Amino acid sequence: MTAKSAAAAARATVYGYPRQGQSRELKKAIEGYWKGRVGADALRATATELRAANWRQLAEAGIHEVPTGDFSYYDHVLDTSVMVGAIPERHRAAVEADALDGCFAMARGTQDAAPLEMTKWFDTNYHYLVPELGPDTVFTADSTKQVTELKEALALGLSARPVLVGPVTYLLLAKPAPSVAADFDPLTLLDRLLPVYAQVIADLRTAGAEWVQLDEPALVQDRTPAELNAAARAYRDLGGLTERPKLLVASYFDRLGDALPVLAKAPVEGLALDFTEAAAANLDALAAVGGLPGRRLVAGVVNGRNIWVNDLEKSLATLGTLLGLADRVDVAASCSLLHVPLDTTAERDIEPQILRWLAFARQKTAEIVTLAKGLGGGTDTIAAELAANRADLASRAGSALTHDLAVRARTAAVTATDARRSQPYPERAAAQRAHLRLPLLPTTTIGSFPQTTELRTARADLRAGRIDSAGYEERIRAEISEVISFQEKTGLDVLVHGEAERNDMVQYFAEQLTGYLATQHGWVQSYGTRYVRPPILAGDISRPEAMTVRWTTYAQSLTTKPVKGMLTGPVTMLAWSFVRDDQPLADTARQVALALRDEVNDLETAGTSVIQVDEPALRETLPLRACDHPEYLAWATEAFRLTTGGVRPDTQIHTHMCYAEFGDIVQAIDDLDADVISLEAARSHMQVARELAGHGYPREAGPGVYDIHSPRVPSTEQATELLRTGLKAIPAERLWVNPDCGLKTRAWPETRASLENLVTAARTVRTELSAS
Questions:
Q1: Category of 605 on φ-ψ map: left (φ > 0), alpha (ψ -120 to 50) or beta
Q2: What is the rounded end-to-end Cα distance, in angstroms, of the chain?
Q3: Is the pLDDT of residue 262 over 70?
Q4: C-alpha to C-alpha distances, 744 to 276, 473, 524, nearest whole angstrom
Q5: Which of 207, 184, 190 is closest to 132 using CA atoms?
Q6: What's the whole-number average pLDDT of the chain?
Q7: Residue 681 pLDDT grade (very low, low, confident, very high; cuts 50, 70, 90)
Q8: Potential cystine with 130: which of 65, 117, 241, 309 (Cβ 3.0-4.6 Å)?
């Protein structure tokens, strides 16, 4: 096919779409089901309606081929485990008794069975359920979900393409089951898994699939020759099947690197590549292998992870370069649109001109369709769209919001001394012990306490004008008083005020900093039914006034025990926002760090002796390629130290991280120079404690003994056993006792019981230590 005919054949498609619905109908239905207010049939009906609405919306917008199979009640990797029959033995009976309840049990756990481990999906804030595999794993095909959803789309008269997690990525994301040796490599199961994928693909062909997409994002990471050979074998075998649909292998989030020649040689009909995060590298690599003659190239030229309008002319230039490298060039977002909110038109509080800088899922869909039209018919066919796009880009570039000379001058004046504590850790530790007088194995929580219905109602009433600010603040004071009283009665050693006034750990601060925009309906799935509204970091950042001092000092006035000041760190403020893309991330991080530094200093001046600066996203934001790690980690750790470097030696700085692969960043954790770090460890069986010990981490640490993402109440015995395991890696004088994460999403009854058991476990182990 000539470049001209390839352009004329250009189609528009996407890999996935937000699942929740316009008003988060899916979240409400699932949580209603968990509480017994919604029946299984009603839940399934809601899901069916949402899928159909999404497909119709995409088709009406001009998308030529809609995705199926990307919808999930909880997580698409969990769905893949069900599809291939990789059900942990402890959950098998539940899944066989009721598939829906069994999946929720795997995700959330039950009182008798722990859930699957949960961690971040590559470098996003989406969490997936980690497959548990072992040498005895027996895979069996169950294509029910995938076939059902394909048939639903086809019944609507739509062209549809099922999307599956690819077999290589699935195995590379998996971990050894708890009962299996830690050095077991799940990739050794590939030959056992491929026939199951072959069966699912055959079932989809029988159901009417012309194409099936296999997502292999793990191949954009550094891969060994053995792993690349496994990918070659996988797609040689799947591509060699007879009577199969056409296969599209998709990658995203970064450059494909050494895996591109492997996939280019595979007997598959198409590849999908990311031309936003790694446009130049993927373009050069594609040209180096001679393109994809006779095959389909899906070009992800619209950023599926951020919310800024596309530069249409730049994207068209990229697409034009790709013509001639493939038999057919289609236009798509760089990845699933799961990672962005649904629609900007629902936003009423953002100034209209600024709103035109933004593109959520519906707007990105329109951009994809426009680009496909322009690629196929020429720029004259989209002249009006190009003119409007140029005006929007110019408006953003010239806005006063994006340039504050005072902020830039302060950032430029930062020195290395500003990012260092005044004394080394051993001297600080001695000063803090003398000042705080904490017991061995001090107990604390991560920060938030349950956000009750009363609190959410009070917040909604304030927004609606049903109560005034005085009435709202009285409710907050009462909540803080209750939280402090509970912690004292329970026997916790370092208290928190509970964060009753905070809607979200990033949004709360963003709303008080210049340079940020807040949405009202910009919901994005984080995990399961947990949705967040990432704020939009649009301009230069400063802090006009104190953000947390008032409520922290009020809480401290209610107790003689230390109350932690609670802040969100600079890297997490970037990672969990939609961050500006018009300057280096390091510059933006430094601006946020200086704003937070002002808050840290004000907390200390107000008498706060323990200040926690949370950085759960430090690992999440780690680049996918090792060669990119040093630059990122240098500015990320500097930003944290810049936030905390101005306090006295006897002020104890804490940080917190959760649900990530910490072993990859232990040196960076050390480089933060925090006095205490708390980390998720319950689901991963204290793995992080062993990783810290292996590194020789010299400071204090609190690996969690209470998994807060499950409704299970850990018994005293379970918490005690985890604590004993932690002590094998971390000496008692440096070990803290705490939950995995904040308690915002939990209910009060389970929170009370769990924390009481946690404190009892700490006391039990203290007694054991004193007797030994």
A1: alpha
A2: 79
A3: yes
A4: 35, 19, 17
A5: 184
A6: 95
A7: confident
A8: 117
Closest CA to 175 of 165, 183, 167: 183
Q: Which residue reads 């009577």 in tokens?
A: 243
CB-based burial, 610-646: b 16+ in 10 Å, e otherwise: bbbbbbbbbbbbbbbeeeebeebbebbbbbbbbbbbb
Quick one: pLDDT at residue 336? Answer: 98
List of E strands, 102-198: 118-120, 127-129, 132-133, 160-165, 175-176
Find the catalytic residue in 91, 127, 656, 709.
709
Task: Report which of 500, 470, 506 is spatially closest to residue 484, judged by C-alpha positions.
Answer: 500
Strands 270-274 and 292-302, bridge-based pairing:
parallel
Output the pLDDT for position 464: 87
275's tokens? 């031309």
Pairing of strands 246-250, 211-215: parallel
The C-alpha torsion from 229 through 234 and 236 to 238, rounded to 10°, is 180
- pLDDT, tens digit, for every residue of 548-572? 999 999 999 999 999 999 999 999 9
Split at pLDDT 50, 70, 90, the class of 301 is: very high
The number of residues making up the chain comes to 772
Task: Give the pLDDT of residue 111.
Answer: 87
Q: Angle at the Cα of 709 (from 707 to 710), degrees rounded to 5?
A: 80
DSSP code, position 444: B
329-374: per-residue pLDDT in tens? 999 999 999 999 999 999 999 999 999 999 999 999 999 999 999 9
Q: Tokens at residue 223, please? A: 């891969």
**Contact (CB, 8 A) for 657 and 616:** yes
Helix residue ranges, H only, 500-628: 507-510, 549-556, 570-575, 585-605
* Count of CA atoms in the C-beta half-sphere (13 A) of 110: 14
What single DSSP character describes residue 114?
A: P
Residue 63 in tokens? 């998308």
Instruction: Look at residue 659 and tell me whether its pLDDT is greater than 70.
Output: no
> Burial level of 415, CB count in 10 A (0-12/13-18/19+)?
exposed
Active site residue 709: yes
Measured from the Cβ of residue 17, the count of other Cβ atoms closer than 10 Å reads 25
Q: Rounded mean pLDDT of 11-25?
A: 96
And the tokens for 565? Answer: 């000041």
Grouping H, G, I as helix, E, B as strand and the rest as coil, residue 692 is helix
Q: What's the pLDDT score for residue 615?
A: 96
Backbone angles phi, psi at 640, to 5 degrees: -65, -45
Please give the structure tokens belonging to residue 355.
């709103």
Tell me what the mean pLDDT of segment 414-430 comes to: 96
- Closest CA relative to residue 342, chosen from 761, 55, 18, 47: 18
Q: Which helix (H) or strand (E) holds 6?
A: helix 3-8
Whether 664 has a pLDDT exceeding 90, the answer reads: no
Distance in angstroms (rounded) separating the CA atoms of residues 548 and 15: 41
pLDDT at 559: 98
Q: Per-residue b/e over 245-271, b at no fewer than 16 CB within 10 Å?
A: bbbbbbbbbbbbbbbbbbbbebebbbb
- Ranges of beta strands (E only) in 25-108 are 66-68
CA 675 to CA 653: how far, in whole Å? 5
What's at 111, amino acid-wise?
Answer: Q
